[in-house]
Design a protein that fits this description.
single chain; 4 helices; 7 strands; 19% strand; extended
């Protein structure tokens, strides 16, 4: 009987360590995962939506920690030293959607890349930058012709508008 109790305690400790390593590798902050847009954790959640801004999004995770809800976005691309501006704005959009949906403003969000995680403070300045970009996007939606703003064939190859674009670059060239 003592032997079985010892095995149960040992198994619990091993499971605890495995769980702690998985949480650390995912860069999730301490707290309860209340939203996960990944099939690994169960059914995929409904997107967050703000009808006033016509903004919708599905963060990879939302973690409730105390009074805060922290969005976490996991990226598969590798980076050099700093997160991509587009990823920062995407995370800011999730912060904005969390505030709208849960009536709690996150003070930060997390961008997780394969080699590093970044804590991105959700400041008034970042919110203003996001609102400016959204306003620019709304203006561009009204245009009948928009010029390509890059020379990256791999980016063109993945674009959802490639089949309709008269400025598409050939992948593998340039």
């Amino acid at each position: 009987m003592l032997y079985l109790a010892f095995l149960a305690i040992l198994a619990a400790m091993v499971l605890f360590l495995i769980s702690a390593r998985q949480r650390e590798s995912s860069a999730l902050p301490r707290g309860k995962v209340i939203y996960a847009d990944t099939r690994k954790w169960g059914a995929v959640e409904e997107p967050l939506y703000d009808p006033a801004l016509k903004l919708t999004g599905k963060p990879d995770y939302l973690v409730e920690h105390g009074d805060e809800i922290i969005p976490v976005e996991v990226k598969s691309s590798r980076i050099q030293n700093t997160p991509h501006e587009s990823h920062i704005l995407q995370l800011a959009a999730y912060c904005m959607l969390v505030e709208k949906e849960y009536d709690r403003r996150p003070s930060y969000g997390i961008l997780r890349y394969p080699q590093k995680a970044f804590r991105i403070d959700y400041t008034g300045e970042l919110e203003s930058r996001l609102l400016d970009v959204l306003a620019d996007m709304r203006r561009l939606e009204l245009q009948t012709s928009v010029k390509r703003e890059h020379n990256i064939p791999a980016r063109c190859a993945k674009c959802g508008y490639r089949s309709k674009c008269n400025q598409a670059l050939e992948y593998g060239k340039n």
